[in-house]
Amino acid sequence: MVKVAVLGAAGGIGQPLSLLLKGNTAVTELALYDVAPIVVGVAADLSHINTPAKVTGYKGDDELERALTGAHIVVIPAGIPRKPGMTRDDLFKINAGIVKTLATAAAKYCPKAFLAIISNPVNSTVPIAAEVFKAAGVHDPKRIFGVTTLDITRANTFVGELKKTDPTATSVPVIGGHSGVTIIPILSASGHTFTDAEREALTQRIQYGGDEVVKAKDGAGSATLSMAYAGARFVASLLDASVGKKTGVKECTYVQSTAVEGLEYFSTVVELGPDGASKIHPIPANLDAHEQKLLQAAIPELKANIQKGVDFVKAVS
Ligand code: NAD
Ligand code: LMR
């Protein structure tokens, strides 16, 4: 039996993500939770799809316990999205509290579940969830993940477009965090060569791909469909490694890490296994000069984002 809970399942990401998860035949139970009552209708709708997962909708605080109990994986896309002119950090004020509440419930009702956190600002919401788990005495850093997969799907798409190669066969690691300068594409590991101008343009587009969508949606939200695709891929990898017992499953994901001195959280390639993160790869040894510069630019912002998350939990507990 494999139960996946989606918290924020009625939202722009939550609905298509739940659809894709309903299509994953490794899932036997899909618990859809939201504060918006329409989540019950979303669950009824998805329940008519002839795949194994039994789908149930849960609305409001009173039903959170039932949504989480027995969950193997908890995916969290709950929270407000950006509007043009906002940074992800501008979402902290509202989303920090939402993630803290949901992590508190997960620590209580499914402390062994893998947590896949999509809610922004990911650089801070992952430390928030970890601090909540620490306070509850159930913290296992191998089980808490910030979902940065969309940065990798974007990098693969943009490089595939430029080099006219199959984007599904393109693989660009993206390390660091998930906002602007903290997003560090490792183009030197893509197997392609780039002119300086190409490298600059690609880096800029990958780092600010989220802003491209926010601008195009013009006040109506941020990336939802590509995020659902990326989130479903990340959950599929967690399932392959845990339930499927597949070896060699790797994803770039933002986790507690020692990859960069002075930063408690960082995304690099992470090997996944039955108990979560089984090996966290270091930063690639052969970064080029451009990538070295990107890394140095990312560190101060990441440090501040992490501290903000940690301080938030300490201040309100
Ligand atoms: P949305 O507003 O469309 O949906 C959010 C959903 O969360 C809504 O249904 C809302 O009712 C629900 N919600 C709010 N508070 C809740 C709570 N306490 N418990 C349960 N549900 C709650 O937003 P969206 O477009 O789906 O984006 C959601 C979040 O994902 C945003 O913070 C956004 O910035 C982030 N995001 C992250 C990535 C990434 O790469 N990690 C990509 C895209 C978006
Ligand atoms: C993204 O990268 O698309 C998300 O983090 C949403 C955003 O605010 O850009």
What does this entry look like structurally?
- The model has no long low-confidence stretch (mean pLDDT 97).
- The radius of gyration is 18 Å and the shape is globular.
- Helix 1 packs across helix 9, helix 5 crosses helix 10 and helix 6 runs antiparallel to helix 7.
- Strand 4, helix 4 and strand 5 form a beta-alpha-beta unit.
- With 317 residues, the protein is an alpha/beta fold.
- It has ten helices and eleven strands.
- Helix content is 43%, strand content 18%.
- A six-stranded parallel β-sheet has the order 3-2-1-4-5-6, sandwiched between helices. The chain has a three-stranded antiparallel β-sheet with strand order 9-10-11. It has a two-stranded antiparallel ribbon with strand order 7-8.
- It binds nicotinamide-adenine-dinucleotide and (2S)-2-hydroxybutanedioic acid.
- Nicotinamide-adenine-dinucleotide (NAD) binds next to strand 2 and helix 4.
Instruction: Please report the number of helical segments.
Output: 10
- Largest sheet, described in full? 6 strands, parallel
Low-confidence runs: none
Distance between the termini: 35 Å
Helicity level: 40-55%
Quick one: how many beta strands? 11
The fraction of residues in strands falls at: 15-25%
Bound molecules: nicotinamide-adenine-dinucleotide, (2S)-2-hydroxybutanedioic acid
Shape verdict: globular
Briefly note the structural class of the backbone: alpha/beta
Mean pLDDT: 97
In the sheet with the most strands, the strands line up as 3-2-1-4-5-6
Binding site for NAD(+): 8-14, 34, 95, 118-120, 227
Subunit structure: Homodimer.
Binding site for substrate: 82, 88, 120, 154
Organism: Geranomyces variabilis
